[in-house]
Amino acid sequence: MTSTIHDILPQLAAGAAHTHALGFVYDSLDGDRVRIRAPWREDLVGDPDTGVLSGGLVTTLLDHVGGLAVWIALGRFESIATLDLRVDYMRAAAARRDLIAEARCYHLTRSVAFVRAWAFEDGPDDPVAAAQSAYMLTSGGGDRPAGEPAR
User: Fold this and answer.
1) Pick from 116, 115, 107: which is nearest to 144 by CA?
2) Mean pLDDT of 72-76
3) Quick count: other Cβ atoms within 10 Å of Cβ 105?
4) What is the pTM of this model?
5) Reduced to 3 states, what is the DSSP secondary structure of residue 60?
6) CB atoms within 10 A of CB 8
7) What 3-state class would DSSP assign to 69?
8) C-alpha count within 13 angstroms, C-beta hemisphere, residue 130
9) Residue 135 per-residue DSSP state
C-alpha cells in the first residue's frame, strides 16, 4: 500500500524533533488549506505576566504550516527550504489559548513555492499574525511549467 501526502500529514506536522518539542499537532486539511495547532503551554509563554505565547513560537508555527502547504500543492513530500518569511504581527495572542495556523500555497514555479499563512485562535478573520513566504523546491519542482498556479 502506497501512502499519499494526505496520509502522512499528521507525522509531518509533529514528527520533527522541534515540532514535537513545541507540541504542534495536525488539525485539518480543507482543499488546499492545511491547519496545525500549537496547544498553549506555560513553557511556551513569552511574557509570564500576560500568559501570551511567544512571538518566536508564532513565527515557527507559520513557517512550518507553510511547508505543509507546499507539500500539499506538490502532492508529495520532498526537501524544501525557507527562502523568505515575512510575518506581520497584528495583535498579541490571547492568554492561555491554543494557537491555530492555516496556510495555502498559492503559486508554484519549477524552483519556488509561494505561501500565505495566518495564525489565530478562533478564525483567520481575526489573525494574531499573517505571513507571506517563499520556499525553495530542491527537486526543481517537477511537473508544472513555470508560472502555472498551484492546484
Assistant:
1) 107
2) 96
3) 27
4) 0.89
5) helix
6) 14
7) helix
8) 8
9) E
